[in-house]
Design goal:
3-stranded parallel sheet, 41% helix
């Protein structure tokens, strides 16, 4: 990217890195670190036309989160998501594609929340 003087770096964080969540301070701190890293890299390499952004997913339906939907507290999780559902890996992929494309050529140093409007 440095030789080409062009590129797009996309980091994955979490909505928890932006908002925090009780009982997950270690996870929140690591994801907030990704956000700080993203903003610093954007500042450092922007003059070389290298963009750096982060995606902050909310609850995404995966094997790792499948248990949440089947738990007794599932409705509590869903009630905090205005869209009323978990996101999909494909939706995060589409968000990544947008940030990698020239459609986002004037976006750098930003955190794009893909969380269905989650209110933690």
């Amino acid at each position: 990217m440095l030789r080409q003087k062009h590129g797009s770096i996309i980091n994955l964080s979490s909505i928890v890195g932006e908002k925090g969540q009780a009982g997950q301070s270690n996870y929140a701190a690591s994801k907030a670190g990704v956000i700080g890293f993203t903003k610093s890299i954007a500042d450092e390499f922007g003059s070389r036309s290298i963009r750096c952004n982060a995606i902050a997913p909310g609850f995404i339906e995966t094997d790792m989160t499948h248990y949440l939907k089947e738990s007794e507290g599932a409705q509590a999780y869903l009630s905090k998501i205005p869209l009323g559902r978990f996101g999909s890996a494909e939706e995060i992929g589409n968000t990544t594609l947008f940030l990698a494309s020239d459609m986002s050529s004037y976006i750098t140093g930003q955190v794009l929340s893909a969380c269905g409007g989650l209110n933690i």
